[in-house]
């Protein structure tokens, strides 16, 4: 299966499908130029609709980051589906960094597909707790905090890109509320945003509301 068809399946069905992207020799077949161009088109079409449902005004799209996120998600899914790849191949393939420095635009663009990372981590852990893929995914999750809310043990390395954009900060807070991820409550601005989002309706997020009450957390305080 091509990356383009993979992304279409991910968006339209909410589940991943991969073909023979990994050969019998355990080597991964990278996407060609035509596949990448079609993938770009699929992503751009989806993003135009997706941004309309987000809070506020999302950042501009970074094409390189958007494609990197899609290909990375495709590779992870391929490694999950086909277990013939060696640890060396897995680590080498997923060690390629995003081609652009992190920023709100890059963070948003990568997240178009990498937001499925928590589901992929759950699948990897269910398949084998000692799977080397888990360590690689956990490292990836720490680098991209917006995309990894809900993953245990994935404390963010740097939240700057999320904190510097109102839309991303609200989206981050919404995901924390949805997943009840208390591990993401250390940052004061994140706590303030969550408290504001919950407002008078603490019954909608009782676990987080009780945490705030128990720790006597006031807006803007540690």
Q: What does this protein structure show overall?
A:
By secondary structure, this protein is mainly alpha-helical. The chain has a domain at 3-157. The protein is built from eleven helices and no strands. The model is unreliable at 216-222 (pLDDT under 50).
Task: Output the radius of gyration.
Answer: 18 Å
Total strand segments: 0
On the 0 to 100 scale, the average pLDDT is 86
Uncertain spans: 216-222
Indicate the proportion of strand residues: under 5%
Discrete helix count: 11
Shape: globular
Instruction: Give the helix proportion (percent range).
Output: 55-70%
Query: In whole angstroms, how far apart are the ends?
Result: 48 Å
Note the run of SSEs as H and E: HHHHHHHHHHH
Largest sheet: none
What structural category characterises the helix and strand content?
Answer: mainly alpha
List keywords for this structure.
mainly alpha; disordered C terminus; 222 residues; globular; 11 helices
Would you kindly provide a brief summary of this structure?
The chain is mostly helical. It contains eleven helices and no strands. It has helices at 3-13, 33-50, 63-81, 87-94, 104-114, 117-127, 132-143, 160-163, 166-179, 188-198, 206-215.
Topology:
Layout: H1 3-13, H2 33-50, H3 63-81, H4 87-94, H5 104-114, H6 117-127, H7 132-143, H8 160-163, H9 166-179, H10 188-198, H11 206-215
Helix pairs in contact: 1-2, 2-3, 3-5, 3-6, 6-7, 9-10
């Amino acid at each position: 299966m091509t990356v383009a068809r993979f992304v279409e399946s991910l968006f339209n069905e909410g589940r991943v499908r991969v073909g023979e992207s990994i050969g019998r020799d355990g080597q991964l077949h990278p996407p060609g130029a035509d596949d990448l161009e079609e993938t770009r088109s699929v992503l751009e079409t989806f993003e135009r609709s997706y941004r309309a449902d987000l809070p506020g005004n999302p950042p501009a799209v970074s094409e390189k980051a958007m494609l990197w996120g899609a290909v990375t998600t495709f590779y992870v899914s391929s490694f999950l589906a086909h277990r013939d790849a060696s640890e060396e191949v897995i680590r080498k393939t997923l060690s390629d960094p995003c081609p652009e420095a992190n920023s709100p635009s890059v963070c948003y663009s990568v997240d178009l597909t990498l937001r499925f990372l928590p589901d992929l981590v759950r699948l990897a852990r269910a398949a084998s707790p000692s799977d080397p893929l888990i360590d690689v995914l956990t490292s990836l999750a720490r680098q991209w905090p917006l995309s990894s809310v809900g993953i245990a043990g994935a404390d963010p390395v740097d939240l700057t890109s999320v904190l510097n954009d109102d839309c991303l900060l609200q989206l981050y807070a919404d995901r924390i509320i949805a997943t009840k991820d208390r591990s993401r409550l250390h940052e004061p601005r994140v706590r303030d945003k969550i408290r504001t989002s919950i407002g008078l309706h603490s019954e909608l997020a009782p676990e987080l509301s009780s945490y705030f009450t128990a720790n006597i957390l006031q807006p803007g305080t540690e």
